[in-house]
Amino acid sequence: MCVGIPVQLLSVDGIRGDVIEDGRPAIVDLSLTPEARPGDWVLAFLGAAREVLTPDAAAQISSALNGLRSLMAGGDLGDAFADLEARSPQLPPHLQAALDAGKTTA
What NCBIfam families does the database record attribute to this sequence (predicted)? Predict the structure, then answer.
């Protein structure tokens, strides 16, 4: 399974971004995020940045990943998913529109 990791850009040189990932220097490909600048947070999958994140989104993702690491090591989730616990489930827009139109089956 591929999991995106939020990383903060230390420097940018063309499509190369320098970051610290898991305490080690790493390089991410910025081809898909040409707007990314030093200091920005990006969501990196397999060495490529796929999305520029807000600092809040990066913190939420990092919290969730840390909670999952803790759970896998025998601990608990803590408040890793507090942002989800505080709201009710939501349908994707196309399903909500169908429900609002009275459709309950295909």
Answer: hypC_hupF
